């Protein structure tokens, strides 16, 4: 019998199935890498990238809450039997906006340089109190002057003592919230400082004093940043390369002076639970590091929460590598000396209400009560993209007061850290951005599902073609057996008679020959029908 021509679909369909199965397997296995490559291209910062407008002028609401510590008994500061008592006031809420200005792209090293302009708008509805509230607090100007004079000779210190007396300076001042924050207030000591060489006084070049005086709308206070754009190495995306044109700060020594970590807006993608994250804080003039805490859900987005632990504000007591943060004078763990970063003022940073600090600080005062939920500093990042989805930056400003032998105002004061204020900068992604992030996270799942679906479809097509042929052939065979049954031949029991019997001359055609089938049936049943035709031929010979 001549070989039969196999129909085109008998070979084409399995080939198509094999291609689909191979493509599906590759897609399912490699889609995560493909997605990461696409994501990296989208995240890289450039004037035309999707991340640029979010970075340059974020539209996410940023709330800046300030809490003052109202000092209720400053008159008793020299009484060793009475602890300073404080009452928290606030929050005084401000809506904060940020904008990058003076942006310069450095393509030769894949970085961008810029300054930052921040503005604050008072939110009366979100505040508990008004900017006209009177607050009694430490006289920071006098405290800074006394702290700066601690290494002066006797004559200069006595001169300062006389000046404080002449200008009626006291250990505390009572001012309105607006004066203490952005408006500032006049003080004759500032006028005196301006008349002296700045190198000697180390006083800031201002005509008024306020904690945020002249910072609203300024582009100078935060400094000059240089950040990696992610081109060439996506792992460097958002990492600060230098600050004020330096890779080290002049305010600390050793490893503590390094400028490193995120600039604050972006973090490298594909985070793990075992790694730490770090960011540079211009307010603290240093890099701070966060440890992985837990998985949280923010607006339906799974995120890794990184929290600030005791290591951030330790000065070597617990973590020896942090001793270089002492800035010359080591204190019990829990406060960071930022005096060199703040014009020589005795400023020390802690977590609010001395959270995680040595009990030494709380034992010396009254009115503060640390609470982890209210006072922990944390950052929640979506691990795939590294996008911050919830941030609560919380720090407290404290002033060190120490006795002075030659400055009368400070003769009998204790060595004590007095809380001044604490602030919380809270940012949470809004619903619009959350929906975009959730859609982004669905892409890998969808890609894997498509890959598995193609693989399954390819296998089905590969198996379907021969199965279909055999099933159809068996059905036709059964149908023809029914239409043309093989006649039964009754055999006699006697063996001689059986031996004398001749084969019938007329042959019963059990099955029609292959030639009688239509062309479609020939090709699909060739493998099944040919053995059956052999049976017919044997019967003919008999």
Q: Features of this protein?
A:
542 residues; alpha+beta; 13-stranded antiparallel beta sheet; two-stranded antiparallel sheet; 15 strands; 32% helix; elongated
- The CA-CA distance between the termini, in Å, is 21 Å
Indicate the low-confidence ranges by residue numbers.
1-5, 491-495, 497-501, 505-532, 538-542
Question: Count of helical segments?
Answer: 12
Report the sheet with the most strands, covering strand number, pairing sense and barrel closure.
13 strands, antiparallel
Q: Which shape, going by the Cα principal axes?
A: elongated
Structural class: alpha+beta
Name the helix and strand elements from N-terminus to C-terminus, one letter apiece.
HHEEEEHHEHHHEEEEEEEHHEEEHHH
Number of domains: 2
**Mean pLDDT, as a whole number?**
83
**Rg estimate, integer Å:** 41 Å
Share of helix, binned: 25-40%
How much strand? 15-25%
Assembly status: single chain
Total strand segments: 15
Give a topology summary:
Layout (H helix, E strand, L loop, with lengths): L7 H36 L7 H6 L5 E10 L14 E21 L4 E12 L11 E5 L1 H9 L5 H13 L5 E5 H7 L4 H7 L3 H4 L23 E4 L11 E4 L33 E5 L4 E13 L2 E7 L28 E2 L9 E4 L8 H5 L8 H4 L2 E5 L4 E15 L14 E13 L2 H53 L11 H6 L18 H23 L1
Antiparallel strand pairs: 1-2, 1-15, 2-3, 3-6, 4-5, 6-7, 8-9, 9-10, 10-13, 11-12, 12-14, 13-14, 14-15
Folded structure, characterized:
The chain is an alpha+beta fold and 542 residues long. It folds into 2 domains: 8-32 and 444-541, no CATH class; 63-429, no CATH class. It is built from 12 helices and 15 strands. It has helices at 8-43, 51-56, 140-148, 154-166, 177-183, 188-194, 198-201, 359-363, 372-375, 431-483, 495-500, 519-541, and strands at 62-71, 86-106, 111-122, 134-138, 172-176, 225-228, 240-243, 277-281, 286-298, 301-307, 336-337, 347-350, 378-382, 387-401, 416-428. Strands 1, 2, 3, 6, 7, 8, 9, 10, 11, 12, 13, 14 and 15 form a 13-stranded antiparallel β-sheet that branches. The longest helix has 53 residues, at 431-483. It is elongated and about 130 Å long. Residues 1-5, 491-495, 497-501, 505-532 and 538-542 have low confidence and may be disordered.
């Amino acid at each position: 019998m001549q070989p039969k021509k196999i129909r085109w679909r008998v070979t084409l369909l399995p080939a198509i199935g094999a291609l689909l199965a191979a493509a599906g397997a590759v897609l399912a296995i490699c889609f995560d890498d493909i997605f990461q490559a696409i994501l990296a291209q989208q995240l890289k910062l450039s004037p035309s990238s999707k991340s640029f407008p979010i970075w340059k002028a974020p539209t996410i609401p940023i709330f800046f809450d300030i809490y003052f510590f109202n000092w209720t008994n400053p008159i008793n500061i020299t009484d060793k039997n009475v602890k300073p008592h404080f009452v928290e006031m606030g929050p005084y809420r401000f809506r904060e906006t940020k904008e990058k200005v003076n942006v310069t792209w450095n393509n030769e090293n894949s970085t961008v340089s810029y300054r930052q302009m921040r503005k604050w708008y008072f939110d009366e509805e979100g505040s508990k109190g008004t900017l006209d509230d009177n607050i009694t607090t430490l006289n920071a100007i006098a405290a800074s002057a006394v702290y700066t004079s601690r290494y002066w000779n006797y004559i200069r210190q006595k001169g300062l003592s006389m000046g404080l007396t002449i200008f009626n300076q006291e250990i505390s001042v009572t001012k309105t919230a607006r004066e203490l924050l952005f408006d500032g207030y006049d003080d004759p000591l500032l006028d005196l400082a301006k008349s002296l060489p700045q190198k000697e006084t180390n006083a800031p070049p201002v005509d008024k004093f306020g904690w945020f005086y002249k910072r609203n709308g300024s582009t100078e206070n935060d400094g000059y940043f240089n950040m990696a754009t992610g081109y060439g190495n996506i792992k460097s995306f958002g990492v600060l390369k230098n600050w004020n044109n330096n890779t080290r700060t002049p305010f600390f020594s050793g490893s503590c002076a390094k400028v490193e970590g995120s600039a604050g807006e972006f973090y490298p993608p594909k985070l793990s639970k075992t790694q730490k994250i770090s960011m540079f804080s211009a307010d603290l003039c240093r890099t701070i590091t966060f440890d992985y805490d837990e998985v949280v859900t923010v607006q339906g987005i799974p995120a890794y929460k990184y929290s600030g632990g005791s290591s951030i504000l330790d000065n070597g007591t617990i973590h020896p590598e942090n001793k270089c943060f002492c800035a010359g004078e080591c204190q019990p763990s829990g406060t960071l000396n930022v005096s060199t970063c703040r014009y020589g003022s005795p400023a020390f940073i802690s977590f609010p209400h001395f959270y995680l600090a040595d009990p030494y600080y709380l034992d010396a005062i009254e009115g503060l009560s640390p609470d982890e939920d209210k006072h922990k500093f944390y950052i929640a990042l979506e691990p795939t993209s590294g996008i911050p989805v919830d941030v609560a930056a919380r720090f407290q400003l404290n002033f060190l007061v120490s006795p002075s032998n030659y400055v009368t105002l400070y003769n009998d004061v204790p060595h004590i850290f007095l809380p001044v204020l604490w602030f919380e900068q809270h940012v949470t992604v809004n619903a619009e951005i959350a929906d975009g992030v959730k859609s982004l996270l669905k892409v890998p799942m969808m890609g894997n599902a498509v890959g598995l679906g193609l693989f399954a479809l390819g296998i089905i097509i590969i198996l379907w073609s021969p199965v279909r042929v055999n099933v159809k052939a068996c059905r036709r065979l059964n149908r023809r057996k029914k239409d043309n049954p093989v006649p039964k031949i009754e055999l006699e029991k006697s063996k001689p008679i059986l031996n004398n019997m001749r084969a019938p001359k007329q042959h019963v055609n059990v099955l029609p020959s292959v030639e009688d089938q239509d062309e479609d049936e020939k090709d699909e049943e060739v493998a099944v029908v040919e053995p059956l035709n052999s049976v017919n031929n044997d019967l003919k010979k008999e």
